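Quick one: structure tokens for this chain, please?
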Amino acid sequence: MIAIAAQKYDSCPMEGFDETRVKKLLNAPMCSRVVMVISVGERDQKGIWGEQFRVPKSEVFFKI
């Protein structure tokens, strides 16, 4: 998602997706696992509908 943001796009992880349907859509073998579904696109400036909560980047990213 950081790489997507570096390309000036926005992304959003999806919760509660139907893994079986995703595998069928992707034509993936049933023995495979779908661990995450992410939407990617250009932000609509009118698209924020409610208050958001963001964890500070300093609590997520650490320089090694």
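The chain has a mean pLDDT of 89.
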